[in-house]
Amino acid sequence: MEVNTNSKFKSHSLFNYSNIRKYITRRFDIESAKINSIAILIGLLTGLVIGIYDRALLYFSTLFGMQRGFSVHEFPPYYIMFMPALGGLIVGMLSHFLMKRRYGVDGLIETVAIRGARLNLTDSLLEVFASIISISSGGSLGKEAPGIVGGAWTGALVGRVMKSPEKRLQTLLGCGAAGGIAAVFSAPLAGVVFVVEVIYGELETSTFIPIVISSVFATLVSNSIIGIELLQIPSYALVSPYRELGLYLVFGLLAGIVSTLLIRTLYYTKDLFSGIPVHPIFKPALGGLVVGMIGLFYPRVLGMGYGVITDALNNQFTFKLLLILLILKIIVFSLSLGSGGFGGTIIPSLFVGTMLGGAFGTIIDMLYPGMTAGPGAYALVGMGAVFAGSTRAPLTAILILFELTRDYNLILPLMFACVLSNVMSSALYPESIFTEGLRRRGIKIRKGREIDIMTSIPVKAAMITSVQTVSEDKSVEILEALMKASRHIGFPVVDSKGKLSGIVTLSDLRNKVKPGEVGKKIGEIATREVEVAYPDETLDTALKRLASKQIGRLPVVDREDKTKLLGIITRSDIVNAYNKKVVEKFRNTI
């Protein structure tokens, strides 16, 4: 009799394909591995895109005659005056005839929060190109916002090719955006934190790792292989720490005031140009003409101003010139962007902060000669402080400056000034330089969610009514078994009459039950003072309560009888209800 050893071999559990697949799936998170692999690809591509962008910016700057280090005496006066206007005219035509919408950082925040991360690839690519024209022709703007948009475009393109679902598409777009800012500043940590702090508004573990991976690889390509132009920042240290920290306290508050001035001037200029009875094509040219007229007398305010920032950090300017450049930079930046140009706000805020810090440091040096660090140290801290105050992203500001300098000597005053500037600016003006534009379009976003949507959905529309409860008389052993079977880590606790008497979570189980105490009653370990929600409250209110108490679920009870359990709502329930409403709103607008 012939024995089929092959069939026996195949049927053995160790070599069964189905069992092997189940084992691998159980042991390894396939989805995470897939997203992380895609994040590497996005990082590499983003670094390449930013490298190409940087080279194109250099080429067009040379073409327009506005390359770094140019002298106003090299060209006739009309040339300096009309180059920004010519660039503005080209940008105006591009924007009017070819683009349906513009993004920038505020547009990306809106796209992630309420548009399902659906980025228009054509418009975003045209925006990146338009920014090259704006900056290279003399527009007083930064290259970081186009870099972020270019990175987001890369992430969205990869996601589109791979037909990624909405949730993954949001992650991939964030990967690209983080890679964009990381590559521009050679600051991978700052790229990660910027996306979390500004674009997403909150941190999720599932998105954090791929964003880190993309940021690292984008920096690797742009810095090590291509060689992006970076700010050259000297090293400074505190001379008299206790006295100087008091001075940095004053300076941080002053930086917050200047940050508010920067925001208000920009949006005042936007309002001014929106009311001018001129065709939209010509508005950027008109703004460029005024910028050119100012640049004729003070050419240092034209373009990004990397060289000017470096000179200020090296104490090359007088007090009077620092103040003039501070005021004029705010004006020409507002004109360049407010009239319809394309570019970023971060580098201009760094410029303004440098001039403010240099001027403040000059005064301190006159009052306390030789007893504090030089004006350049205050200029360095000023870069971060004004950036923090205008963007409301203090952690990003601290990390960008730290990664640019690779110097720990001024980290304490830098942190101090950035936080104080953020506090002062927030007190004077509720919106950041990014969210103010959204607010004017009727969109209020906090922590990655649109407030108007959150405040329009009641808890009863999102809560789960079929609640699994546990009796306070049951044993801990039963609770353990229930948690394993249901995979829930918390349950409302009810008494013998079915009334809510508390809540029990995995944390209670770990902290209040010792080995061998499986016979202990659930009522003995349950939390009796329960945070609850009411069915007529809004999701915004419930989410704030979850965040303030650092908990994951709220029992929903009757207002008249708080022991009457109506349902339960978790953070994921709130997010799902929000996303559903966003999809409905988005479909109604297209």
From TrEMBL:
Q: Which CDD domains match?
A: Voltage_gated_ClC
- Kindly list the biological process annotations in GO that this record carries: methionine biosynthetic process
Q: Topology versus the membrane, per the UniProt entry? A: Multi-pass membrane protein
- Domain named CBS: which ranges? 463-522, 526-584
Tell me where in or outside the cell this protein is found. Answer: Membrane
Could you give a GO molecular-function term held by this entry? chloride channel activity
| Superkingdom in the source lineage | Archaea
Q: Which InterPro entries match?
A: CBS_dom, CBS_dom_sf, Cl-channel_core, ClC, ClC-type_chloride_channel
Pfam hit, one = CBS
The record's SMART domains line, in alphabetical order, gives: CBS
State where it is primarily located. Answer: membrane
**Any one GO cellular component localisation term in the record:** chloride channel complex
Keywords (alphabetical) are: Amino-acid biosynthesis, CBS domain, Chloride, Chloride channel, Ion channel, Ion transport, Membrane, Methionine biosynthesis, Transmembrane, Transmembrane helix, Transport
- Transmembrane stretches, start-end: 35-58, 78-99, 172-196, 208-233, 245-267, 287-309, 321-340, 408-429
What name has this protein been given in UniProt?
Inosine-5'-monophosphate dehydrogenase
Q: Which organism is it from?
A: Methanosarcina barkeri str. Wiesmoor
Lineage in the entry?
Archaea, Methanobacteriati, Methanobacteriota, Stenosarchaea group, Methanomicrobia
